[in-house]
Amino acid sequence: MSEETERRNLRMPNSDEVFGVVTQHNGGNHVRVRCEDGKERMGRIPGRMKYRTWIEEGDVVLVEPWDWQDEKANIEWRYTSQDADQLRREGHIQ
After folding, report:
1. What residues are paired with 74 via a beta bridge?
2. What is the pTM of this model?
3. 53: closest CA among 34, 87, 78?
4. Which positions ≥6 away from 20 have C-beta within 8 Å?
5. Rounded Cα–Cα distance for residues 42 and 75 (Å)
6. Mean pLDDT over all residues of the chain?
């Protein structure tokens, strides 16, 4: 079997979003996220993702920090492991 190395168009962050990696699942709809800008934030999984998208430790996510509380953020998108590998290959994340 050959390995699939096809490039996919992935969702990239807007001006107010950053990449992050989930470091801890705190139960319910809260996770601890280490963001690309060097900050550790409490991430909130919105209701539209809560039961449809399963988020685990080590997942690469797209977060939108809150304007009024910088230590908290909303999880906007979760990348699959193949998508995360592509982001690493292209140099978007480490």
Report:
1. 44, 64
2. 0.81
3. 78
4. 33, 34, 35, 36, 41, 43, 60, 61, 62, 63, 73
5. 10
6. 84
